[in-house]
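[retry 2/3] Glutamate 5-kinase: previous attempt timed out, resubmitting with same input.
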Amino acid sequence: MYEQSLPVGPYRDNVSAEFPIVESVAGPAFGHESELRKRIATARKVVVKIGSSSLTGPDFTVDVAKIDRIVDALQARMSRNSDIIVVSSGAIAAGMGPLGLVQRPTDLATRQAAAAVGQVYLAHQWGLSFARYGRSIGQVLLTAADAGQRDRARNAQNTIDRLRQLRSVPIINENDTVATTEARFGDNDRLSAIVANLVRADALVLLSDVDGLYDKNPVDPTARFISEVRDGNDLKGVIAGSGGVVGTGGMATKVSAARLASRGGIPVLLTSAENIGPALDKADVGTVFHPKENSLNAWKFWALYAADTAGTLKLDAGAVRAVTSGGTSLLAVGITEIEGDFHSGEIVDIIGPEGEIIGRGEVAYDSRTLKPMLGKHSHELPEGMHRPVVHADYLSNYATRA
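[retry 2/3] Glutamate 5-kinase: success.
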C-alpha cells in the first residue's frame, strides 16, 4: 500500500445534492488533537467506510465473522445515539469466489459481473448481521452521475435520511454493475468523503488494513507514525501507495479522501478495521485529520468536487486574481473564451489564461447569450444583462483547498 509519493499540493477531485448555501455544520477546527478526537468520539452522525479486505476472506467470499465483528462495533456506537451510515466496499471481491475467479478481474464486463453477484451476497450478510440487533439495512448504490446531478443527488440524500429516520442502516456502495470507467468515483474512499458531505456528517471514519498513516511502508522499522494531519505540510515526505489484492484504493486514496472531507469541514479518523471498536468508542487510535477552518459551504463543495460540468469559461489574468481572492463575482469583462453548449443555471469549469484550473461556478447565462458579452464592461451591455456571469455565492475556487 506504500508505493508512490503522495501529492501534497492542490489536487483535483471530482462530488452532489441540492445543497443549500449554508456554512458547514461541522464547525471550526479544534486546536488540540485530543479535542478533535473527543469531537469524533461524540459525533452524532458518522459515516464509516470499510474496505474490501475487511469484509472478504482469502477465498474471495463474504467473511461472516468479519462482518459480525464490524456490526457489533457499529451497533455499540448506535446504542450511544449516533447515526451510522456505512460505505461498504467488497462487491467485486465478494463475487469472485462464487464465479470461480482467482484474481481481481481487469476487464470492465467481468468486474461488473462480479459486482452483480457479490453485491447480493454482501447485502445479504449485512442484513443477517444487523438483524441480530433487530435492525434492517437499506442498500444504496450510487454512480458518479447520481452525485453530479442535483435532482438525483437530492433523491439519494432524501433516501439516506429517510432510512435513518426509520432506524434502518444505509449501506452505500458505488454501483459497479453499471458504472463505466469514464463515470466512476474511482474508489470508495472518495465516495465516502462525498457521502459524508452529502448527508452533512459530523465525522468520517476510514477503515482499512493499516492502523493509521505512516511516512512510509509500516513494515519498515524506520517508519514514523503520524497521529494528526492539519494541512499539507504534515504530509511532506510521506510515501503512500495503491491498493492490495482485492481493493482499488490504498493509503494514497484514503489520505486524498480524508483531505477532501476535511475541505468540507468534516473531521476524519483513519485507522484499521481491527481497531473499529476503539475507533468508534473513544477515537483514541489511528490518525486524525483536522477540518479546514476555511471549509467550503455545502453548495460550493458540491460544485467543486461533484457536479457535472457543461462547459468552460476562460479568464484573463486580472479576472483570475479577482475570483481567487474570494468574495468577488465573475463579470463578462474578464472572460476571454467559452467552450460548450450550456444553459443558465448549469455548472461550468473556470480556467486561467494558460488553461490552469481555477474552479467552478453556476453560470447565469446560456452560452449563446454569453458569447457577445465577452470582454465587455457592465455599462456596455444591454439592459437586463448587467448581473454577474457567475455570482460570488455560486463560485467555488481551488485556491485554498490544499
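[retry 2/3] Glutamate 5-kinase: The CA atoms of residues 114 and 208 lie 21 Å apart.
[retry 2/3] clearing retry counter.
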